[in-house]
Amino acid sequence: MRFSIPEGFEVLAFTALGFQFLRRFLDTPTRLPAWEPYLKRVWLIAVVLYGVGALLGIDTFATGWYWLAVSVLVAYLLLQIKDYPPARTILLALAPILIATTVEELVEDFSPAFHKSNDDYFQSASAFASMWLIAFLVIANRQKKALVKREQEREHEAEQRRIIEARKAELEELVAERTALITHQKEELEQALAELKATQSQLIQSEKMASLGELTAGIAHEIQNPLNFVNNFSEVSIELLDELAQEQAKPARDPDLEAELLTDLKQNLEKISHHGGRASSIVRGMLQHSRASSGQREPTDLNALADEYLRLAYHGLRAKDKTFNAKLNTDFDVSLGQVSLVPQDMGRVLLNLFTNAFYAVQQRQKQSPPDYQPTVSVQTSCESGQVRIVVSDNGTGIPNEVKEKVFQPFFTTKPTGQGTGLGLSLAYDIVTKGHNGSLAVESTEGQGTTFIIQLPA
């Protein structure tokens, strides 16, 4: 038996290649999974048929029946995925060439003479079908690209939506956590505020008692002087009384001596009364300072008030440090007269300013050469309907970055245990809110500080 290549080989190869193209182009593994096992075997079927034809020497594959079967199969597959636009386009693309080829094969098999005489028409039909096929394949390819692009856009949008939803859920969870945290912090702050308000009055009272402690040492020193005078003059008066009693007991009394003794006794009693009054004044000032302010203004000798608290503050510091000495300068306006104010409140302000001034010069003295002279000054005056009190020192001064904070509550530059940070804050409130005045500070670091109080005259 002679081996020959069947004439229908090109048809077999064309259909096999066509099926592979359709599989890839139409994505049949995804769109026609049930047909995929059979479509995969197109090459195997083509090889088997080709081998059978070659061995038997029969030309089976060039017949119109084969093309008809192929046309029906392709049309059926395309109809299965007709919802896919490129599939419909390919169906339109293949229809002319399948019909033309099938008709030509059938005519050639059953009427060779007719086919031969009209071969030009069949060639033209095949050429037109081929151009039709190419044109619609291009269209189908563009459709597929457009669909792929839209699918990618949809996937991208879906991915973006998933990201947005995930981010939204994350943000909602974060907001819920933050809300819970803020709510918890709010509750803690409200509790802390309640505790702060509850302790505020205690702190203010503690500051008052702290200033009272500063005052006590000075009072102890100041009150000791009049008490010493009272004791000394009392002892001398007792001696004078003894001398007077002895003189009166003599048979020959000396009237001049008795008169002199009585005069001396009267002078001693006057001095006892004077110094007793001084002691009473100091005690009364201490009591006014320690008790709660009534808020009632009364005419007050501001010069005497400033002088008294200046010396009390000075002796209060000396009671703690016996080696400390300072120069006290006073420049009081004698024409100032009585000023309407709350004496115990203004006393607290002056005591705080004087105490801070003495503390500043004491600190500078520790760092300065021996020729440094600590000096604290107080000046009063009346200008343009305003009472002016100036307290200055040549101490350490206040840095610029600290100067703006000195009147803030709880702010202090003193070491822990030596200041609460409420003294200047309370002083500022007393002057500005309690007396409708002003309290300002001027300072140069390393040179000194000046506090200026202005009150309505």
UniProtKB/TrEMBL annotation:
Its EC number is 2.7.13.3. It catalyses: ATP + protein L-histidine = ADP + protein N-phospho-L-histidine. One of its GO terms (molecular function) is ATP binding. PROSITE patterns: HIS_KIN. The keyword Phosphoprotein applies. Residues 141-209 form a coiled coil. The chain crosses the membrane at residues 38-58, 64-79, 86-103, 123-140. Keywords: ATP-binding, Coiled coil, Membrane, Nucleotide-binding, Phosphoprotein, Transmembrane, Transmembrane helix. InterPro entries: HATPase_C_sf, HATPase_dom, His_kinase_dom, HisK_dim/P_dom, HisK_dim/P_sf, Sig_transdc_His_kin-like_C. PANTHER family: SENSOR HISTIDINE KINASE, TWO-COMPONENT SENSOR PPRA. This is histidine kinase.
